[in-house]
Design a protein that fits this description.
mainly alpha; 434 Repressor (Amino-terminal Domain); single chain; 2 domains
Length: 105
């Protein structure tokens, strides 16, 4: 995305984006949040407080039941079964992402 496209997307002038990029001015909190959303990252990342554009959310928070099941599998499954499960999850993910892309079209 170009600076001009970014400016148009978040409703700032191209000059304002240029000044922010060159550290000649700081964005308002509202502009910072819009920038983060447009750039698919967190405000903390833009401000240099973290090196991760998006924080990793613990699996327990996203899917408590699944986290416990995966923990049990990790404890009892041999390496071959773990690899087979991982391959299945990767296929599932690829198919799910493909369906999501088709829905957006």
């Amino acid at each position: 995305m170009t600076s001009a496209e970014l400016a148009d997307k978040i409703g700032l002038s191209r000059t304002a984006i240029s000044q922010i990029e060159r550290k000649k001015s700081a964005p308002s909190i509202e502009a910072l949040c819009k920038l983060a959303k447009a750039l698919d990252c967190t405000p903390d990342y833009l401000l240099g407080f973290t090196n991760e554009p998006k924080p990793k959310v613990p699996l327990e928070t996203l899917w408590p039941e699944g986290a416990e099941t995966l923990r049990k599998i990790a404890e009892i499954a041999d390496e071959g079964n773990k690899q087979m499960l991982l391959a299945f999850m990767e296929v599932f993910l690829a198919q799910s992402e493909g369906k999501r892309k088709k829905l957006k079209m």
